[in-house]
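# step 3/5: fold
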Amino acid sequence: MEQKDWSIPAVIGEAVDILVLIIYCALQIYYGCAFHVAWYLVAMNLLSAALIYGGLTWLAFHPELINRLPREFCRKEIRKFSLRMIRLEKLIFLVGLLIPCIFDAMAWEIPTVYNAAVVILMIGLAIYYEYKILMILKELR
């Protein structure tokens, strides 16, 4: 990620993402200890969250890979929308993990619609930003 991509909202958003990930990890460990969940299941939950977070963070360093554009072509608005999409998807993903974890730690049942709502929100966000990027690419050609 280039230095120009690190605005104040981007830094705050990344800090919130890291904080949500830390809270998620702590709640997973608490849940595993309190409800006697096998350690490998807790480890798999933590590892999967860390890998997806790491993958999305890596993608933020190479936003041109989202649309398979040459690096020199992914500038200005296209780069801005790509980075914004990645950051928002990462935030939705992490909050989408955290909310069921909170429900589990409090021994409450989460509504069945929740997972579908998170997936629809993530897909809708991706479609919205990809549409904006495709319209910019259409104007450039």
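# step 4/5: annotate
The radius of gyration is 17 Å.
# step 5/5: archive (pending)
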